[in-house]
Amino acid sequence: MLSLQHGAKSRAFLSRLLIVVSPSPSSSSSSAYLDSNSYHVASFSSTDCNALFAASTDSNPLFAASTDLLVSSFKDWFKHGNKNELLDRIFAILDTRGNDDSASRRAADLALSQLGFRLSEAFVLEVLRYGKDVLSCLKFFDWAGRQPGFYHTRATFHAIFKILSKAKLMSLMLEFLDNYMNHRYLHRARFYDTLVMGYAVAGKLDVALHLFGKMRFQGLDLDSFAYHVLLNALVEEGYFDAVEVILKQIKMRGLENKITHSIRVKGYCKQNLLDKAEAFLRRLVSEGGELSGNVVSELVDALCKRNKFEKAGKLVEEFQELGVVPMDHAYGVWIRDLVQAGRLNGALEFLQSKKSSEGYVPEVFRYNVLISRLLRENRLDEVCDLLMEMKEGQISPDKVTMNAVLCFFCKAGMVDVALELYDSRSEFGLSPNCMAYNYLINTLCGDGSIDEAYRVLKNSIDQGYFPGKKTFSILADALCREGKLDKMKELVIVALEMNFRPSTSTYGKFISALCKAGRVEDGYLIQGELNRVNKVINKYAYFNLIHGFNKSNRGDIAARLLIEMQEKGHTPNRALFRAVIQCLCDMDDPEKQFFKFLEMQLSRHEPDCEIYTFFIDGAGHAKKPELAREVFEMMQRSGFEPHLSSNILMLQSYLKSERISDALNFFTDMRQRRKIGRKLYNAMIVGLSKVNRVDIALDFLKELRDNGVVPSTECYEVLIKQLCSSKRYDTAINLINDMEKVGRHRCKDDKSSGTSLLGMLIGAFSGCVKVSQHIESLEEVIERCFPLDVYTYNMLLRRLSIWEMDLACELFYRMCQKGYEPNRWTYDILVHGFFKCGRKAEAKRWAEEMFQKGFDPTERTKRFI
Fold first, then answer.
1. Alpha carbon 387 to chain centroid distance?
2. How far apart are CA 87 and CA 414, in angstroms?
3. Cβ burial, residue 226 (10 Å; 0-12/13-18/19+)
4. Are 69 and 32 in contact (CB under 8 A)?
5. How far, in Å, CA of 53 to CA of 70, rounded?
6. What burial letters (b/e) apply to 776-812, b meaning 16+ CB within 10 Å?
7. CB-based contacts of 144, cutoff 8 Å, min separation 6
8. Of 676, 704, 735, which residue constitutes the final position of a domain?
């Protein structure tokens, strides 16, 4: 399903593309019939499309039917561009990855022979040009050379040499040449010509020249074809002294032609002798010399590479006006160089100008260059125009075009179309490349189609592709987020088998997801593997592992992981220490476990107050005040005077265990030894309130007020909550009034304050009085104490959304009636609440309204949409 954000964009592009489904302006049918003489399907005029999409939505049957029509049209266009079924069958036979034993080779030989085609130089060259991969081309070349009645020529040898060279398989090419004399088809091709060409193309020019000299010593000579292969290789590698020698030989034998001139201009350009190249070119024109399109394009390309675009453009126009040479190749090079330099607008303007004035139609690979760059820059309107132009001009797409089309549909928000074309790839011989796979996987993940993305990934691996790190990370994040952990585990195993190392952050997210899913042992195993290869996971993964083992009551492993985490350079916070200590205290022999952990911490570095403080805090939360007291005294014996924080934590450890007498004695002891500040009083009041010793807490509050000190907001809040819980509302309101007198106000719209007075009051009432039954009463009580605002209503809405969404909606409308403007959080609460209670249709309706208001959902809500 297309996401809500992409719907409008996809409909806009679909509307435009349907206009060119057929070039016939007279057709107005919207049925998806196919014309047997054309690769187009039924046409839509712009009027038809505007009417069709006026009220269309992604779920509208018209939208679905139109999408099907578009898919059919592109499928048929792709089929039109892949008409050579014989060549596809040849390469299907040759594609035997993983089955390269002798039996498989014999079976492939037999299958090729049974196809019944006639071998010729032209046919072999056509097969090699069509080749899908180097290995298959080599297999066909070898098979052809072993067939009775066929012998490889210089042209076929040159073709296979170029394939090997382009693939940078020089060692394989040299091995091929070294074994050349052992082949059956050796003596039908000119022996030395073939070797000279082969070594020249392989870049072994010293060997090629040595063989050439040996030929001349024996009275043998190269033919025109081999001479020009050697000359071109010398120019490419910069052997310019040898270039002049070979040029002289070519002239002496009367072999000079337009290819010679083109290579000579290339040589001048390679030496940066552009003025000399231009003068040579103009001399050829004035003398009426034989010229090819390449001779102009070589100079145009050289000028562009040196950033002389103005001069290159003038040269193109000048030679077009002269009319002495075919300009299609020069036009193509000019467009390519403009695109590579980022001058896309210039390239597009030139193309349209030449198309209208001269009827120029670029070759398909020139269109591909333009489309690929436009895609990279997200200029989707121009991509759409070029695709429409190609379809209208019946230009057969190649594999690069098909991959670009997949990427376009992904970027245009039409991943459904891209996926259907991908699933139909066998019908028209599409072989997706890495870019197409990455776009598909990324877009499917963004669209929430995680299973489809994973399926595409598995297919890509079967085809020999593996996604880039960014795509891998996106898919891994999606799998972890959606809890598809078995798929994620399989993905990690495949990555490791292919020697692909995901980032440590990806591993960290996977470990965290495993822990959250209760599979902490699996996460621990992965963390161990990473330790083995010296990879360090992030601190959040450590946090999740430690919390996971705490939940399973394995405090010993949690403690070991916390120490390892510190050794890896991460700093645990107090809450993590507290959680580990609490778990250790719940195990057998808690005192032994507790002090073993403390000893390990103290042995890591010089003892300091913070470590002792962490353990006092942890023991207090574990309700082990005797352990806290022992650490407190150990700290003093080690020469550290307890500071305010450690005193507060020691006091709180007594209060949490409801050891009120010990807490009062400790407080009195400190009061006798020093002046007690506001923070200790606050800790005492809050601690007593939390264990429901409200009257004692109120006495301390009065004592603090009598001393002229203002208690903290937390003191008031916790006391008010306990008073409300005990239905002592009068006293609670008195405290609220006192709070107002001393200037303790809640922070307006402070979303970070989870313990605001308003929050406590709402929590108190909603805990004692069910909000869904008394929402108006609660609203009135709150309004007596505080001015109602959007923040207040949002808190009430969030509480209501837990139980009753209908009442939440009522409160929303009442809020609007009173003049309060809902904000992003208001809508997010409602969308999230409807999704949580399974009312998806209403959730989507509220989400649409949210988008229309210009608000984006929070991350926790996005995963539902």
1. 26
2. 32
3. buried
4. yes
5. 14
6. eebbebbeebbebebbbbbbbbbbbbeebbebbbebb
7. 119, 124, 150, 152, 156
8. 676
Q: Is residue 624 part of a domain?
A: yes
Residue-range definition of the domain harbouring residue 831: 823-865
CB of 778 within 8 A of CB of 766? yes
Rounded CA gap, 490 and 522, in Å? 13
Mean pLDDT to the nearest integer, 294-319: 92
- Least Cα distance to 65 among 444, 425, 428, 416 occurs for 416
Flag whether 668 is in a domain. yes
Residue appearing with tokens 């006091």:
651
Would you say residue 848 lies in a domain?
Answer: yes
Nearest to residue 4, comparing CAs of 848, 832, 857? 848
Give the C-alpha distances (Å, rounded to integers) separating 539 from 422, 550, 584, 709: 40, 16, 21, 41
Whole-angstrom CA distances from 266 to 234, 243, 260, 269, 573 are 11, 12, 10, 5, 67
395, 367 in Cβ contact below 8 A?
A: yes
Residue 165 forms part of a structural domain = no
**What b-and-e string marks burial along 690-704, b requiring 16 or more CB atoms within 10 Å of the CB?**
bbebbebbbebbeeb
Q: What is the pLDDT of residues 652-711, one digit of tens each?
A: 999 999 999 999 999 999 888 888 889 999 999 999 999 999 999 999 999 998 888 889
Taking a C-beta distance cutoff of 8 angstroms, is the pair 230, 222 a contact? yes
Closest Cα to residue 529, out of 513, 551, 503, 507?
A: 507
Query: Mean pLDDT across the chain, nearest whole number?
Result: 82
CA distances from 512 to 104, 189, 270 (A): 46, 65, 56
The CA distance from 509 to 476, in Å, is 8
The position carrying tokens 């000119």 is 190
Q: In 3D, which of 698, 746, 741, 742 has the Cα closest to residue 719?
A: 698
pLDDT per residue as tens digits for the range 811-853: 899 889 888 999 999 999 999 999 988 898 899 999 999 988 8
The backbone torsions φ and ψ at residue 128, rounded to the nearest 5 degrees and listed phi first, read: -65, -35
Nearby residues of 287 by Cβ (< 8 Å), 6 or more positions away: none
The H or E element spanning position 154 is helix 154-166
The domain tally of the chain equals 2
Q: Determine the 3-state secondary structure of 34 from DSSP.
A: strand
CA 551 to chain centre: 33
